[in-house]
Amino acid sequence: MFGDHDTDAVDAINGTIITYGQTGAGKTYSMEGPSILVCDEQKRGLLPRVVEGLFDCIKSSGGTMKHSIKLSMVEIYMEKVRDLFDLSKDNIQIKESKSQGILLNGVTEISVSDPAEALQSLSSGIANRAVGETQMNMASSRSHCIYIFTVHQEVKRDDRLKTGKLILVDLAGSEKVEKTGAEGKVLEEAKTINKSLSVLGNVINALTCGSPGKVNHIPFRDSKLTRILQDSLGGNSRTALLCCCSPSPSNALESLSTLRFGMRAKHIKMSPRVKCNEDKCAKKQGPASSPIKHESCDIILDKLKERFDAEDVKLLEELFTLNGILFDPCSSEELDSAFEDVTSQTIVSLQQAVEELASTVDELKRENKGLKERLAAAERCHAAGKEAGDNNTSSLVHKLPGILSSFVSWVRSLSSIKLLNCEVN
């Protein structure tokens, strides 16, 4: 079913396979199978089949080309991209290159030379995935997992270098809280998952419902998932979608929603093509073309300054830098679209910050109210203690004359006794 994607990757054509469906519908099982390392031949998942297919294609290509495969593995957890081969890299930035498309800056790439080595590396990465227990799934994936196979192809006779990518995506499942019983941290994870899947749906709708001949805004930058899948969904890639449905009648509505999503995605028009590595070509051609590129960039910058104030241009540059975007515009239409994308993303971030601040203010108000109540109670206790002390002092003052009178009488009687003793002697 997915054999063409292996061949395309070896031939420097990008490919993507995505598993989609509700939680517990079998997405991860379809991707990995019962076990990624050892399982029955007929029950193997997509990953083992893809790995074997890639190396088979390389073997059958003959000796006229030199191939190498590198493997990366990341997960998108709570809107952060984490490297599953190096857990210290827990917030990888997404960047864009005109020649290479969407890139994960600093992601770990492992060179693999045979299927066994590739599967062993994948197994170690899978062990680092974020999972949690819900009422619908004992080991529910709490993140979107992305497997990236990069195939470099070098033609020996002229040293041309081509690169193809095969991306496999195991999406986290959409969740209804009343069914999963999610609470606390698991609930927050579910909210983030559902939000990113909603953005994915918006992207699919924008790609399939646009007016012919009109450039439509595609909200790729509204989530990390759609940003990484930008080339896979709307660019240079051959993409397949595996829709996973639950056989349970109680999940009929979710299954119907999954199938409708698949029907919409089917109408996306792709244009996969072979692309040479321009970096290696540039080494042979030298820097002759760079002045032309700089000149065109200057023209675009001048046009941008004409359309916006100088402060707006500087703000736009800062916003792109903060969002980890390397933008190389080629038309004023792209500038407008990019400006709208970054502005909308900034507005969303500010709205989230306002919500967090509002929550903090409410919490501080509750703490302040509690402190006021404790202070009032302390003041009442102090007043009661002071009143009791005053009463004791007043009583002592009233008793003091009687005490002194008794003391004087006692001294006088003692003196009389001593005087009597002296007379007797």
From TrEMBL:
Residues 347-381 form a coiled coil. GO terms for molecular function: ATP binding; microtubule binding; microtubule motor activity. One of its GO terms (biological process) is microtubule-based movement. It is found in: Cytoplasm. GO terms for cellular component: cytoplasm; microtubule. It comes from the Eukaryota. SUPFAM superfamilies: P-loop containing nucleoside triphosphate hydrolases. ATP binds at G21, Q22, T23, G24, A25, G26, K27, T28. Keywords: ATP-binding, Coiled coil, Cytoplasm, Microtubule, Motor protein, Nucleotide-binding. Pfam families: Kinesin. Its main location: cytoplasm. Residues 1-268 form the Kinesin motor domain. Belongs to the TRAFAC class myosin-kinesin ATPase superfamily. Kinesin family. This is Kinesin-like protein. The lineage of its organism: Eukaryota, Viridiplantae, Streptophyta, Embryophyta, Tracheophyta.
